[in-house]
Structure formats: C-alpha cells, structure tokens
Amino acid sequence: MTAASTAPVALVTGGSKGLGHLIVQHLLDGGYRVGAISRTRSDFIDQTLASHPGDFHWSSVDLGEPDALRSYVKDLVKRFGRIDLLVNNAGVLHQELLLTTPHKQVESLIAVNLVAPIILAQACARAMTRTGGGQIINISSINAIRGYRGVSVYSAAKAGVDGFSRSLARELGPMNIRINSVVPGYFDSDMTNDVTDTNRGRIEGRTPLGRLGTAKEVLAVLAFLISPAASFVTGQTVVVDGGITC
CATH number for the domain including 175? Predict the structure, then answer.
C-alpha cells in the first residue's frame, strides 16, 4: 500500500468557509485525506479540489436530507477505504421568538442542528468499528449552556448535541471511538456578521477577556482534541468563549 492510501480520513461538514474552511485546511496540512460537504461551492472548495485532487472530496449535500448524508458517507468510504474522524461543524442559526416561529422552521432547525449530526455519527461510527476506532467532534454553541432571547429552538438542538456526545462517548468508548464537543462562544464568523456595533460592544463588555474570539482560537482547541495528546479525552464538552459563560 502507498503512504497516501494509509493516511487517515476525515469528514467535515460545512467545510466550504469560515471555521470549516480552517478545519479542512488544517487536516490536509496534517496528512489527512478529507471529505467535505456543504450546501454551496466556494472559491476555497475549487482551489482545494485543484491543489489536492487525490486527497480531497467535496459534494453539495443538504443536512436536512438524511438519505443524502448516508449516501455521502458510503461514497467517502468507497473512495478512501475508511473514516477516522468526523467533525460535525455545520449549523444554521435562526433568531425569532418561539411564539412566532413557524412549525416548519422549528423542524428545519432541529433537523440540521441535531438530527443531521446524529445520522452522520451513526454512519461514520459504523465505518470506524471496522477499522479499529476513530473519533467524532461535534461543534456546539454557548446557546446550549446559557439562555438567550430568540434562539430557544437552536439552543435546544445544540444542547441535544452535547447530551448526545456524552452518552455516545460511553457507548462507543469500548470500540476505541472518542466523542467530544467543542462549544464556541462569540467569534468572528458568518453567524456574527450581522451583529450590530452596539450589540458587539455589549457582548465584548460581558466577556471577561473583553473581545470576540477568532476561528483560529476555536481551531486550536479542536486540533488538540484530534491530536494524540488528547488520546485519553472523551465525553467532554470544551467551552471556548473568553469566559462569557463563567
């Protein structure tokens, strides 16, 4: 077997931009073969397909379509032979008071932010059990541990992801599969682009470190969890929020 064929394989959701873009690049730089899904194609995807033709596989997949998610995992295993790491990074935030939120919007938020990570974890864990183990990292949110107005459904979904992670860690630990969740606070991303200067100032004022975080700071924690240095870490919820929830 060639060195390339024995390289570990990762699947990253929401890998076309923002934190997902950084995760994909970090993994490729670290010798992983990477599968990524997102709803839309980006310049980063085009550039990476051109620069890593044998090590990078992208498809447009809607997280709200369970059959498409399972199909992509099967395709990735067929292409690369295994899956060693799943990073459930993609998510959708919708802000609206619960009393006015349409039922379809509620269903969509739960489907994308909770059901999709569960489906992908199930499909990838099955592949991992055939190759000696692996790990799953779920990207959660501080909305899961603190109440904020207008995001109750999103908060419920992310809290579900954290609970799912802890229970799954117990279930899959004997199979040498580690499960952890990373809980970012407010950091510069697509989700915070629409925050007004006034609200940004309020957030910074409530944050002990006095600023928003960066995607690279979240990536640093995720990189540790992926690394051999974290080989005895599982079932944990790691908060990266500048202290806003302390």
Answer: 3.40.50.720
